[in-house]
Amino acid sequence: MGEEAQLSDKDTKATMGIEDTPGGKVRPDSQNLRPSVFHSIKFFLLCHSLLQLVQLMISGYLKSSISTVEKRFGLSSQTSGLLVAFNEVGNTALIVFVSYFGSRVHRPRLIGCGAILVALGALLMSLPHFISEPYHYDRTSPVDTPQDFKASLCLPTTSVLASALSNSSCSSYTEAQHLALVGIMFTAQTLLGVGGVPIQPFGISYIDDFAHDSNSPLYLGILFAVTMMGPGMAYGLGGFILRLYVDIDRMPEGGISLTSKDPRWVGAWWLGFLISAGAMALAATPYFFFPRKMPKEKNELHFRRRVLAIISKKKDSPSEQSPREFPEKKDGLARVAPDLTVIQFIKVFPRVLLRTLRHPIFLLVVLSQVCMSSMAAGMATFLPKFLERQFSITASYANMLIGCFSAPSAIAGIILGGVLVKRLHLCPMRCSALCLLGMLFCLLLSLPLFFMGCPTHQIAGIIHQPGTRRGLELFPGCMEPCSCPSDDFNPVCDPSTHVEYLTPCHAGCTNRVVQEALDKSQVFYTNCSCVAGGGPVQAGSCDSACSHLVLPFMFLVCLGVVMACVTHTPSFMLILRGVKKEDKTLAVGIQFMLLRVLAWMPSPVIHGSAIDTTCVHWAQTCGRRAVCRYYDHDLLRNRFVGLQFFFKTGSLACFALVLAILRQQDKEEGTKVTCSGLQQQLLASGPEKKPEESTV
């Protein structure tokens, strides 16, 4: 045991170069020391699993708090979608060169530097909170008085007070300051994308290089399983953080009269980025102590050896051939790239890209994954806001629903798809059939979603429901003596008619009454000239009569997510079997690049633009259109679910074409497709290339 420890330590120093002390000198007693924990691939696996978990938690946290950021900084859904997409801009611009650098660099240190950039990006993302003014949910109120006290009442001095405060607000919070805050967030998102470039590719290749050939698939499976919990944890963190008030670190002296159910409520969105940045900095620290190269793992895991022994007793296991397959995976561009300069790599990349895209199976499967990724990107970004608006629930509750149900459903679907491919020994044609069935069921499950939703609130002066009494038309001119400010927002509800007013001033109310209860206080407004009987009207938006439908809605969404994620593993197998062996490494890289460029970047912007078209009342800030106050719920549901339905249909059509092409190739070959033998040759398309060109 001692000799093996000394030999492994020597091997490590030989591969690393002497890096123990500055100047390259080794202490005389260094050979008697045990190998460091940083020379263990298992410890690297643990560190990298935690690092990727935190990285996905940071990228998913913004999606969980997107509606809160919109309200806080007056952003439209299109702008917030563009903000989310900027995470992919820096990532896409640099990801191609990762395949070139490969093992030329010190991969652990580069991963650590990328993680530090991600932590700095998360810190920068929270900076707008600290350099901006405190959040005033009622802009017509003086700063030195409680914000909600007599601020929105119908008083003769309201117009003078409102105009003075509006001018002071516009002078202190100028358009340049607003653009600076938004620019900081866009810069932070770009930095998050750039920092995440080396984390996954270099981590996977490092594990695959120094793990035992039999253990590498298991280690990568553990890595992906732990990583997939990141988005769920992000939504869970958002559900907890958004219950706290945004200015929890600088609360006004008189306190606030808002609850999390108030539409003006803004949660402490910035706190999640601070927590995530600290976790990322801690997770990045060990990477600066890992060696550039470590001794390859020599022993197979004991429990894996037992499992293989049991399988070999039942039948001849093909796992004996797997060790011979691993040395072959450095074919193609991955094998040639270290011999190319940067200029040669840039010149040869488009040629290999075009040759890969000529494979019909590869192209169709990638297009199908583009449609599914577009659906997933839009849902991950705006589903919390959709639930919040459609069913009148709080942002924290919407995030908790998604974190507890949608994210685990995606994990379950991917695992189920992998189990089906493994247990049923699916050939390419059956893989495409499984993908087709999965998307078909996903499409059918989305049909009832068009009819599950809440009707739009009746808003006095904005939205009128047919067959109901018009709020302000019953009392024409009731608001004239009030001179209500146009940019004020303090909704009140008439419980008798279920009509909502923008402010108590818009309802003509002149008095405010607070009823104290044991657990909370309730605010009412009386003497309302625009309300039948003079009121009273209740502070806050009108309650929705169909909020209970959110659970059946989420149940169908989760079932659809399971069916869509079942196609993940079989579609990935179609890509690996649909290209030449020497192009597999680059094909996977091209796949992820196309998914970023065609799906993850444009999809949030497309969904945000579609959501903006359903807005019926925009808030105005200093003459600029800010956040949307009210949406047409029917239009919102039809366009959001309709976009999801469109992308699911596109994915289904692509898988149908894949199945048709495989059947046509089967007929042309004149052979019967089986699940063993030379199936991969059926997927290869195009004339054979010369060996030299094929290698490149």
TrEMBL record:
InterPro entries: Kazal_dom (IPR002350), MFS_trans_sf (IPR036259), OATP (IPR004156). It is found in: Cell membrane. SUPFAM superfamilies: MFS general substrate transporter. One of its GO terms (molecular function) is sodium-independent organic anion transmembrane transporter activity. The keyword Disulfide bond applies. Pfam families: OATP. Belongs to the organo anion transporter (TC 2.A.60) family. This is Solute carrier organic anion transporter family member.
